[in-house]
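Sequence in, structure out. Go.
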Amino acid sequence: MFLPALAAGLIAACLAGTAHAQDAEDDTAMPADLDASMTLESQENRGAVTNLPLPRYVSLKGSDGNARRGPSLSHRIDWVFKHAGMPLKVTAEFGNWRRIEDRDGAGGWIHYTLLSGVRTVVFEDDHTELHSRPDDKAPLTAYAEAGAIAKLGKCSVEWCDVSSKDADGWVRKTKVWGVDAQETRD
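Output:
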């Protein structure tokens, strides 16, 4: 029985999805009120700008996104995210800037226009099984490779429905990054 590999061409792109910026300009000081806004956000678990939950997951809208040391264009670029659709976690807000991190903890401040509310996940392991239903005994629909990215659909406490242009199916939530352990979605 042939089962398609989910987004096979994305492995190298996802593993090389971030590039450390070596030639960036000098860092400047953080705005004085930045620490106060982050403290307030962490106490309320809501973004001071959007009033959306923190932390929360988003995805990279385009194929390039500069993550800076601070929330302005004058701050040094620490990372360049290179893969459209990459899931990212928003951990703070300041004006038009969002502090984000990827599954490895790399990140920084990125302008909100470079982010999308479309939810995606990245597969953690090679040969991750996708099933036709949220059940380990359900027929397999595909295998996903480590680093492949898929669009996130419904989620129960243990399973998520995911899809890409190559395949779709249900995956155990522990096999992907981009969704919280207790998060459910309809």
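Check: The two ends are 31 Å apart (CA to CA). The first strand starts at residue 5 and ends at 6.
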